[in-house]
Amino acid sequence: MTRVIPWPALDGIAYGGDYNPEQWDRAVWDEDVRLMREAGVNLVSVGIFSWALIERTEGEFDFAWLDDLLDLLHANGIHVDLGTPTASPPAWFFHAHPEARVVTRDGRTMGFGSRGMASHSSPAYRAAIARIADALAARYATHPAVVLWHVHNEYGVPVGEDYSPASVAAFRTWLGERYGSLDALNTAWGTAFWGQHYTDWEHVGAPADAPSVVNPAQRLDFARFTDAQLRACFRIERDAIRAHASQPITTNFMANQSWTTDLWAWGREVDIVSDDHYLWAADPEGHVGLAIAADLSRSVGGGAPWILMEHSTSAVNWQPRNVAKRPGEMARNSITHLARGADAILFFQWRASRSGAEKFHSAMLPHAGTASRVWREVVDLGDALGRLSEVRGARVQAEAAVLWDFESFWAQDLEWRPSVEVTHQAQVRAYYEQLWRDGVTADFALPGHDLSGYRLVVAPAQYLLTSADAANLAAYVAGGGTLVVSFFSGIVDENDAVHAGGYLAPLAEVLGVRVEEFLPLREGEAVTLERADGSRLTARSWTEDLLVCGAETVARYADGPAAGRAAITRHRQGSGSGWYVSTSLDADGLAATLAAAYVDAGIAASSAPAGCEVVVRRGAAHDFTFVVNHRGDTVELELDGTELLTGAATDGSVTVPAGGIAVVRTDRAEEATR
Amino acid sequence: MTRVIPWPALDGIAYGGDYNPEQWDRAVWDEDVRLMREAGVNLVSVGIFSWALIERTEGEFDFAWLDDLLDLLHANGIHVDLGTPTASPPAWFFHAHPEARVVTRDGRTMGFGSRGMASHSSPAYRAAIARIADALAARYATHPAVVLWHVHNEYGVPVGEDYSPASVAAFRTWLGERYGSLDALNTAWGTAFWGQHYTDWEHVGAPADAPSVVNPAQRLDFARFTDAQLRACFRIERDAIRAHASQPITTNFMANQSWTTDLWAWGREVDIVSDDHYLWAADPEGHVGLAIAADLSRSVGGGAPWILMEHSTSAVNWQPRNVAKRPGEMARNSITHLARGADAILFFQWRASRSGAEKFHSAMLPHAGTASRVWREVVDLGDALGRLSEVRGARVQAEAAVLWDFESFWAQDLEWRPSVEVTHQAQVRAYYEQLWRDGVTADFALPGHDLSGYRLVVAPAQYLLTSADAANLAAYVAGGGTLVVSFFSGIVDENDAVHAGGYLAPLAEVLGVRVEEFLPLREGEAVTLERADGSRLTARSWTEDLLVCGAETVARYADGPAAGRAAITRHRQGSGSGWYVSTSLDADGLAATLAAAYVDAGIAASSAPAGCEVVVRRGAAHDFTFVVNHRGDTVELELDGTELLTGAATDGSVTVPAGGIAVVRTDRAEEATR
Amino acid sequence: MTRVIPWPALDGIAYGGDYNPEQWDRAVWDEDVRLMREAGVNLVSVGIFSWALIERTEGEFDFAWLDDLLDLLHANGIHVDLGTPTASPPAWFFHAHPEARVVTRDGRTMGFGSRGMASHSSPAYRAAIARIADALAARYATHPAVVLWHVHNEYGVPVGEDYSPASVAAFRTWLGERYGSLDALNTAWGTAFWGQHYTDWEHVGAPADAPSVVNPAQRLDFARFTDAQLRACFRIERDAIRAHASQPITTNFMANQSWTTDLWAWGREVDIVSDDHYLWAADPEGHVGLAIAADLSRSVGGGAPWILMEHSTSAVNWQPRNVAKRPGEMARNSITHLARGADAILFFQWRASRSGAEKFHSAMLPHAGTASRVWREVVDLGDALGRLSEVRGARVQAEAAVLWDFESFWAQDLEWRPSVEVTHQAQVRAYYEQLWRDGVTADFALPGHDLSGYRLVVAPAQYLLTSADAANLAAYVAGGGTLVVSFFSGIVDENDAVHAGGYLAPLAEVLGVRVEEFLPLREGEAVTLERADGSRLTARSWTEDLLVCGAETVARYADGPAAGRAAITRHRQGSGSGWYVSTSLDADGLAATLAAAYVDAGIAASSAPAGCEVVVRRGAAHDFTFVVNHRGDTVELELDGTELLTGAATDGSVTVPAGGIAVVRTDRAEEATR
Q: Where are the beta strands (DSSP E) in C582-672?
């Protein structure tokens, strides 16, 4: 096996973006590399959509233009992240292999003319991706420009589930391997309900549209299968490249923007995690979503530095209203990613496309050219990143963990749940956002992970929770940890079957409470909670009839369907404690509840003013404190060290203007211990 | 022909639910029967989704587990409603007969993995249901536990219309029988419009998606055909059972929740009407919808006692927000059904499922087990029903009838009607709800029924009205009846063709009014009506230009597009009168208008306070007055007799607490006459 | 070639409607013609949906009933517009040629039973329409009743795009002719983006549903192709008729209601433009939409008189709420069409259908018969039109032109635009409506037209603008014209590729401004503009970062994302000027901005009060001033001449009551010059 280099071979923070020069005349290339140097670009991703121009007919390759391009970039000191173009097979491929086209759940066969891979289970597609990946790696494994391999693009988007015959057959095989016997499958899927018992493997199919709701365990397994097939496709390419090349290999995730792929599993397959992130313009606090994506990217990579493979200099083009970033916003976004562990800041894309579906997507070099705000900020950002080289490799310190479990999300996203208002996305966001407001840096984790290093673990809507994982959470509390569990947690096992003993049963002992019945609220309905001190909280969407069995009651329902019953409970066990929140608190309620949990956990909330984001990365010799001021006024923070963007000593405090950023190198703080 | 026993052979009111023990270990069965006895359960429905476990491959039956189950139930004194499992054919069936899969109107072939029958017109399906029904009846016709047969489940849901080739061919045959000649079909469908003339039977098809709106008469016939095919499937099973068995045979309707099946026709096919009813959580007055369903179930069975085959102990799982029932609500729901003619109160289902699509549906034995409010109320309800045995067989007394005509509904539900705001559901509900508020008990009826026994007949949006049925309504008024007709009535004949003479023409003489033109209102628009005494009413959605020809004007439009014209009219004919309401009155307007009509009809509204529901069942020797208090305070009603739940004499008046119920046995009132 | 008569051979203004007597007994026909004479009807359209009754099986014709009908009409002095029935092929056609059925973009094959042509590219369909058109023309070319031919019905509705195999093959051929080589196609479509390069013509297909957004240039070409195929179908029929007949040939457009067909191109194919127009009931200013449709119909016909082929006497049946016209409204609508150039006022349809999809559509003879408001107004309108004979042939005088470019609309309507709130329909309507309010009569024009005759040219959202067309607009300003351009103009070329130089680049010189970046607003967001005089305007949805390069700033953004930057600019060049409006102004802002532009253009806004519509047609000897009073009060206008409806001299001023109309013959005004 070839030895893998653990990070692209380049100096400092990587900076650049997707570069698709096949859209332009050769003369433009020269201007491109000149401007890249002006902007401080040191890494570009090429070839991501170039299959049709590299393999012009099946098995016939034309590398001339790509040779030329890589040589040009290398001559200009710009490193290359070389993509495999398998996210968009050529027209000839679909013409030769029409059976490889993707079929949707409602039976429509997808046409050509857009982007998106073929069926993940198509033998023809799998052979074709092995061939192109092998050919690319054989030719460029030793090209001096290439420092990184970029397999495919955004697995799972826009093609995830596939209902083609090839996929159905592969699903059957996958089920056979998972269950071994039809009896085991019948039990796992609960086929006795609604008369779905299988007596022959040939009768088992994909969960396509049916007259009513399809078996949820079948759908959950189809989600697992889809993820597994996509990963199998990745491995085919990765292994074909590795046979020739020693550079690290990645594929770009879409953390917190796509849920088709289990990023924990994918994190184990790649050499380096890379991620694409785009602000959701309709979200006034889009930077919180960004922080989630960054923390998740870091977490699925085990805390190692990661690559921000794509973000945007300004507006995107695929949202209903594509709001442009305002001055300084691109820098704030970029520095936030850096603060949360990215050592590479890249964009989609270098030069705005004149044609095609994404011509209105912003770029490093916009349609307006260099006489533009965007270009000036791109140059400035390149300069700023140059000043932050020493940050590279430093590790983010997190006191808290938020559970994030794709299998639970897949299960919870199925139909016929108790209330359409209860979504894992909203619950994770609500708890994370409160931690963010409180300046408590968090990792994401699976419920089965070793959580002992965290002072606080939050489980928002951990709907699917195996008994083993529940035991792990109980052990965490027994070991002195503080656990906060929201409603709609611990409901089903790995087969989407309600736990014996009822809702929350596997956590009943550690939390000292059981759920007798869900009491979802009507549309627009709100309830009031009263705490022991008489203070009141507001909640919406969901309440429950709780049976308290050991916990203390922190707040009761003052009205609503559960009036008089416990609403928030706390179960003290030695130095550990287990909190349960049976409703969807508004922001004030969450703030008050988590504040009390912090006390149990021994966490101090940040002293920075609201909207001033502070994150620390710990290097070998120093700490680096990143300050991103989302506020409309100037902030002054006590920090003794050197502000790296200006190079100036702080003299005890750093001043960050409205919308501004600062990075202060300080002495390492003492190691946090619990 | 075997003699049919007219009611399940058990004592008192039947109590129980669907029992699907194939989901559980044998050990659970023993606990089940023990708890059933504790709850007073005396009837359970079994086998409804068990096809795959009974006929494991085509023609190979395994009755062992069912033998065991029935013996166990019988040994514990629990009677059985034995289902045929044809609402969910096994996987092997669809694999062997892929052409039997249902095709939707937009051409999608429905997959397996959910529930829902095959094509109602598939020869393979029809053969299969005959085989399984015959096998079950042959084996269990004489089993002492079996007191009732339950064919299929909820015909029409989730599978009604089918556009498979088998269905298209059957539709052609059905049309041939209906029309005899293509000339007759061309005339009935008005094919001269839009160039749809047929010259060959082979050219006639189902009304699948087309570039624009499809011929409405064709669609109406397809709805009739769909209903007829479903009924044909029922008859196949019923007759197969009857060849062996003498117990009554039913199938569970979904009155007021599904409109695919013409329950009047179905009422003639079953031995006993049974019905499923679920509250619509978003409806704050869901108990009115419940009363409609109950009255309709009774009416389609000709007034005979019926079976509430399914309702829920608390929340369901398939609505957007599945609101749980609050303490006492399940009892109020149950007693309302009983008050309106049900002699059996059953639930879906006995024990909550751990797996599958309906695991979040409440049950008699919830996930929380017996230490739960739901279980305690289930036991209490069993006890209460035990005290009401003597009610069995008593008949509900109704002074009014509301027209309810599925053919009219089907026609009115088609596209391109004058206003999307005019729906038969809303109009029927509005008039019924006012009768409910006024304590006027109503039957439902077809316009062609003998209506002479009713003091008042209300026709809300009777869009399709044949000339013969119109004549029947006229005869009713001529005989002294009071008829209230709403707008959008008497518009088309049985072929969805506008009546010669224009809108309302067939009722013009009896009502003394004609409709010159519809004047639908814009979104959100309201109009004011002024009555002779100067009082004002508010209306929405719809107004009309009326031509008064004989009627007196009760109210005029004060504004809106018909300002100055008649809005509500009354045509006195001897002791009868015909009212016409040309707009959609709000609740106050309906109250005032019906109050005036009651005077004509000689009806006295109830003296019970608003929200206190009072219904009388008349037994052989006594009247039974049911009181259901939906109010938040205690109600006292003058009733002299014995309250059956407590067994106490009322001493002239009965006190019913907030949310409570009472059933008072009194002397029979004098026979109501008109 | 036969000489074409330029207008139907009848006296005065044509009046009548679609006549579909095949729905009725022969006895009804006699009543029909009697009532037609009573109403002053002189032209009816027949045969539009009669294919199945004329060609009963393939190649077998039955003309007897049509002979009879035409003779009857001729005998009563009623002229005939003879339709070809090709908008609704018979059942036998689709049965014999199932491959001719239309396939939707999502792959559904459309069924029979509605209306709508077959695939525009089907050889069988093309052969069939040639055959029926030839047969009809051969038989009736010399029938004395026939004065006009009416090919098909509303091309593009309900069938426009077709994805059947025949259409895909034809698209490939069409592309071959357009591009000559695959290299040219690859360049035009920008296939280098997302890896869509084609190497074989056989790989090119229609832009059917794909996993993500399909190539916009491909979709734009498919829209062009669809339009071309529909026109080819028209030409087949037109030429078949012309081989026999000398009467003018038309087909009815749906101006401002359908966007599938490029009416500029269609205007060149027909002998006379005809148009269908229906009010959109939900639009409180529906008469403005009517005026747009009328002006567009006139404009695509080069200003010649045109035929209002269909409108409605009262409500239609296909909108959500089909609001009836109120007394006088039908006359106002009709006279507005006449004022804007129509010399024929026809309706859909003569007698209301009893059956079929459109039975609730109003008619000249409604279901209520002659004892109805509608009938009385129909008779009155016939009388009024009889008094306006001398208007025939007079030409509308327009000082302004509004650009209307279907290719731009098609391109702009594709997915992934910067904001869903920016639509060409809304922008065209906003600018036109302000001109309408100001009493400035406008033509519509293409950006490549000779515009030198207009004082003012408005370009609302001219998204697609070729460099040649941009040069034409620049030349217009250089020649002294006043040009007002809204945001989202001049963005892409004919291939939907962003212009080199960036947004607005081809107009940058004439407008003295460039667009650095789009700044779409969030939902509900508004911004304020400040003008030099301190006055403030409000705008929504869209703002921009402008780079002013030569223009003067007329208004700046006072807030919002572009705060402080130019919002409205004016670039004076000699006596011409180029205005740019970078945001979506509300009505007050548009009024103020256009008022300033009128000054540049030398246009005086009308002195008539708001809501009183005044349009002038210029005849050979006189001017005819049409006054339509949409107001709720009486209006008095200074006009010296003869009011034609009353025949009275005006004595200097004409008084028009609320909702009334007047047509005043005056001396010809002096020729307007710029």
A: 584-585, 612-618, 622-629, 635-638, 642-643, 648-649, 653-656, 661-667
